């Protein structure tokens, strides 16, 4: 990771919420560093170690940042912290999701990783997802992150439970995940329409790190996405009729419906209602298979 440009602290210092957050951030980093053993991150303990947990230089090395810069961070200096560095520190310090969210909040930054939770996904919404079965349904945000889904949806295009949470994004899956891609009958058309819709929606989120990192990942991992992105198509809407080739029950045709969960065009519930009797019967069989495999997913 590239070195971060840091600025020395201003003379005299300042007071206020920002300073309080810097001191809380410094204390949080020190505490986490001191409670991680070298063995947990693949480092030898050695005989002359006096510091409990990791040394500052070890955290800096593992996170690919300068030792001086990291020291300033633990000293609550007034320096700029990029989301990329915060992401690296979270991984180095083995933060769980709650600790990671706390880290970004203290740093006054937006977590760039795809969302794995959403305030709109309440227990009631999860109950609705379950009650909709055998209709496949999920909750997505405007960035195509899959925030919650029922069991039938979880087996419709791939084994979604087996996909890491950070990869549960319909764009990522449509362009890079072969089982998901092979389940979409009209793949090229779907990819092109999704890229166009993503471009149109991203116009309102150009400064947000999560959107920029998703775009960078797609550009890096998928030549097909690059080709679709360079068309500069915007405003396209996905077809309301979709056709899938499911590995368990065969061809399925559905009608796609979006139901937004709030006044803004953000999180939405996506449902796939069978388009014909044969598809209805196949979705019922898929639901039975899904019930035998796993309980209602929590993500």
Tell me briefly what this model is.
The chain is built from 13 helices and five strands. The chain has helices spanning 17-34, 56-63, 67-74, 83-92, 97-106, 123-132, 151-156, 170-176, 178-183, 187-202, 209-221, 223-229, 277-293; strands spanning 137-140, 146-149, 241-246, 250-260, 268-274.
Number of helices: 13
DSSP strand (E) fraction? 5-15%
Query: Can you write the helix and strand succession as a string?
Result: HHHHHHEEHHHHHHEEEH
Largest sheet: 5 strands, antiparallel
Whole-angstrom Rg: 23 Å
Mean pLDDT: 86
> What is the total tally of β strands?
5
Shape: elongated
Q: Tell me roughly what share of residues is in helical segments.
A: 40-55%
Order the strands across the largest sheet as they lie in space: 2-1-5-4-3
Which oligomerization state do the chains in this entry correspond to? single chain
Q: Roughly how many Å apart are the termini? A: 30 Å
- Which spans have pLDDT < 50 for at least 5 consecutive residues? 1-14
**Class inferred from helices and paired strands:** alpha+beta
Describe the structure.
This protein has 299 residues and is of the alpha+beta class. It is built from 13 helices and 5 strands. A 5-stranded antiparallel sheet has the order 2-1-5-4-3. The longest helix is centred in the N-terminal third of the chain and has 18 residues, at 17-34. The two termini are 30 Å apart. The model is unreliable at 1-14 (pLDDT under 50).
How does the SSE layout of this entry go?
Elements: H1 17-34, H2 56-63, H3 67-74, H4 83-92, H5 97-106, H6 123-132, E1 137-140, E2 146-149, H7 151-156, H8 170-176, H9 178-183, H10 187-202, H11 209-221, H12 223-229, E3 241-246, E4 250-260, E5 268-274, H13 277-293
Antiparallel strand pairs: 1-2, 1-5, 3-4, 4-5
Helix pairs in contact: 2-3, 2-4, 4-5, 8-11, 10-12
């Amino acid at each position: 990771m590239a070195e971060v440009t840091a600025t020395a602290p201003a003379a005299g210092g300042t007071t206020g919420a920002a300073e309080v957050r810097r001191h809380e951030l410094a204390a949080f980093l020190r505490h986490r560093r001191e409670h991680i053993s070298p063995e947990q991150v693949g480092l030898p303990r050695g005989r002359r170690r006096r510091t409990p947990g990791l040394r500052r230089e070890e955290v800096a090395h593992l996170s690919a940042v300068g030792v001086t810069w990291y020291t300033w961070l633990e000293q609550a200096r007034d320096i700029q912290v990029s989301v990329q560095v915060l992401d690296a520190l979270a991984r180095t310090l083995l933060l769980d999701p709650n600790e990671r969210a706390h880290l970004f909040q203290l740093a006054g930054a937006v977590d760039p990783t795809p969302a794995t939770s959403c305030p709109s996904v309440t227990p009631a919404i999860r109950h609705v997802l379950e009650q909709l079965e055998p209709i496949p349904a999920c909750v997505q945000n405007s960035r195509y992150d899959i925030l919650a889904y029922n069991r039938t949806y979880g087996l419709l295009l791939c084994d979604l439970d087996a996909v890491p949470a950070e990869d549960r994004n319909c764009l990522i899956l449509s362009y890079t995940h072969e089982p998901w891609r092979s389940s979409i009958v009209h793949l090229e058309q779907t990819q092109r329409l999704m890229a166009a819709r993503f471009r149109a929606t991203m116009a309102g989120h150009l400064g947000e790190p999560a959107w920029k990192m998703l775009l960078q990942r797609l550009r890096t991992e998928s030549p097909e996405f690059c080709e679709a992105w360079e068309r500069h198509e915007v405003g396209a809407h996905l077809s309301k009729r979709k056709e899938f080739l499911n590995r368990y029950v065969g061809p399925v045709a559905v009608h796609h419906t979006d139901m937004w969960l709030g006044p803004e065009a953000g999180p939405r519930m996506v449902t796939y209602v069978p388009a014909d009797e044969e598809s209805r019967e196949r979705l019922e069989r898929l639901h039975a298979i899904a019930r035998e495999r796993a309980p209602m997913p929590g993500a």
